[in-house]
Specification:
Blueprint (H helix, E strand, L loop, with lengths): L5 H12 L4 H16 L6 E4 L5 H6 L5 E5 L2 H10 L4 E4 L12 E7 L8 H11 E12 L2 H4 L2 H8 L3 H14 L8 H11 L3 E7 L2 H12 L2 H10 L15 H9 L8 E7 L1
Parallel strand pairs: 1-2, 1-4, 2-3, 4-5
Antiparallel strand pairs: 5-7, 6-7
């Protein structure tokens, strides 16, 4: 494990908040911190590489191999020149021999995948003995503690609150919003010998992220018109809650956190 200093945490927070909407950047900054604190052996298998933004921020000096089912983000990832190899495919059929990667990662991806057990099984197959699988996922709080649900429940509209939860998670493409115990059972079934986890991202942060999704019209307009999410990347930009997010990145851990980070050892 590596302990990051204040300047490193500043750099992580600024990179994420200055390159994407704050409600995404605040979560990614916390996650980037966790991965940078790990001693990831090379080469690293990245399940759900996407556009490569997260990997570029995290592992510029690492040898990485990425897989993703969608062509468009893969082309963007290719332009970033982060990965040694990019493959279009799914995580349940990784085009790699057995026991070849000493480390694998998957950031905010597994919650979107039906039949996720088959993905965990294939990641296990590809890891070397003693290899580690690092991943982060939202947990069951996204079904029960959303800000919109709180408002509707306060008004006595419990039926609408439940409908709102289903709607929000449907548009977020959340399939697996499960407890750490459920994920641990899946990992053990896949063959992993040891599973460690911790919760992070308190409920207020999840609700802040949720509201950001609902009111992101301006940043979406900037992206369409100018090709970037943030026009004025500065800690003094009043539309970037830099200080609040920086404090969160400093101390994101909490027992009732809405996200969970896992380290599973083969």
């Amino acid at each position: 494990m590596t302990t990051l200093n204040s300047k490193q945490l500043d750099k992580i927070t600024q990179h994420q908040l200055f390159s994407m909407p704050y409600f995404r950047g605040m979560l990614r900054a916390c996650e980037q911190r966790f991965y940078e604190e790990q001693d990831l052996a090379q080469p690293v298998l990245d399940i759900g590489a996407g556009d490569g933004h997260f990997a570029q921020a995290l592992l510029e000096q690492k040898m990485m191999f990425g897989i993703d089912p969608w062509w468009e983000p893969l082309w963007e990832a290719k332009e970033r020149q982060v990965y040694g190899l990019l493959v279009q495919g799914t995580g349940d059929q990784i085009p790699a021999p057995e026991s070849v990667f000493p480390a694998a990662m998957s950031n905010s991806v597994l919650e979107h995948i039906p039949n996720v057990q088959t993905v965990l099984n294939d990641v296990y197959r590809c890891l070397t003995p003693g290899g580690k699988f690092y991943f982060a996922v939202p947990n069951a709080h996204f079904k029960t503690d959303l800000w919109g649900m709180k408002v509707l429940n306060t008004l006595g509209l419990k039926g609408l609150a439940n409908s709102y939860s289903k709607f929000f998670n449907k548009i977020s493409r959340h399939v697996n919003l499960d407890t750490p115990e459920t994920w641990k059972a899946r990992l053990l079934e896949a063959g992993f010998l040891q599973v460690e986890s911790f919760n992070y991202f308190p409920i207020w942060a999840m609700q802040m992220l949720e509201r950001g999704h609902l009111f992101c019209i301006m940043t979406l307009l900037y992206k369409k018109l100018f090709g970037k999410w943030i026009l004025f990347p500065s800690t003094k930009n009043p539309f970037i809650p830099y200080r609040k997010v920086r404090e969160l990145v400093e101390n994101p851990f909490c027992e009732d956190g809405t996200e969970t980070f896992f380290v599973a050892t083969k």
